[in-house]
Amino acid sequence: MNQPHPHVSTQPVSAVRPPVTSVGPIGWIKQNLFSNWFNSLLTILTLYLLWKIVPPFLRWAFVDSRWYSDGAACREADGACWSVVGRNIRFMIFGFFPHDQQWRPLLAMLILVGLLFYSRNRKHWKKSLAYAWFAGLVIMGLMMQGGIFGLTEVESTQWGGLPLTLLLAVFGLTAAHPLGVLLALGRQSRMPAIKALSIAYIELIRGVPLISLLFMSSIVFPLFLPEGVTINKIVRAQVAMILFTAAYIAEVVRGGLQGMPKGQYEAAESLGLNYIQTMRLVILPQALKIVIPPTVSILISAFKDTSLVVIIALYDLLKTTQSMLTDPQWMGFSTEAYIFIALIYLICCFFMSNYSRRLERELNVSR
Length: 367
Fold this sequence. Notes:
Elements: H1 24-32, H2 37-63, H3 71-76, H4 83-86, H5 89-94, H6 103-119, H7 127-145, H8 161-187, H9 192-206, H10 210-220, H11 233-258, H12 262-270, H13 275-290, H14 292-305, H15 317-324, H16 334-363
Helix pairs in contact: 6-7, 8-9, 8-11, 8-14, 8-15, 9-11, 10-11, 11-13, 11-14, 12-13, 14-16, 15-16
């Protein structure tokens, strides 16, 4: 009778498991963190730096911090003074909007956030969604401006804080994207006049910083208006941001158009489609899908650039925070205030980036 080899396992194949050092958490750590001497050294140095930085930061931010005290008590503490946010949160968020009317910009922001979340699902992209956005924007405008339905009228000079930041960002990004697509198509046009104008616009706008456009919209542009005619400063800043962002989006979309195979144009022509039908039904859907990552990067940068309106005395979220820090009681606690502002921008940018990745996966028909 044949005897099994002494070094051969007699267990069933299903019961034989790989060594614990090659699978599971231990295997992952060994493969990714200690695969060779260089990776092991980097891992040890990283752990050492984290040990030096994270515990002191947690102690400063949470253990020794003050959450709802006055400035004098904060100066006696060894940790962070989050009271600078808690005590001034309404001014930071709403700016100079009348205190008893601040429920109106709050309601406007909730409507905007609700529409954005509802629009995340592509199944909701119907005509009814467009009507919902139109109705929502009208209601938001009425909530902010007032003057009807018994609402006290509030001048736009009193708008500020987070509502103004969201207003500039959402309306700016929404208008800049289609304008950028038109400029990209214009630059690819066979009509010399349209192509020359598109190239001149794109190169001119991309050749100057956004700050210069904001200054021109705030200071230079009013000089050319007829006497007695004025345009709201917020509208002028909004237009400057739209024009600036559209030029960068145009170049990204142009890259997507150039990346389309010539066969796509020939196939559309063989079907008898004209130029508009070819672009709307064949070329643009594919080109815009290709350039989703760089387009979202530009939109995220544009959202963060809304903070630059502080230089033309618009009281956005950053400006209201800076104004609050001029109060002698809260001087010296700018770190905590700016961390709070940074978290707001981080959350907004994270959701934009996360949605772009989700949209890219949904549109990737090859998967």
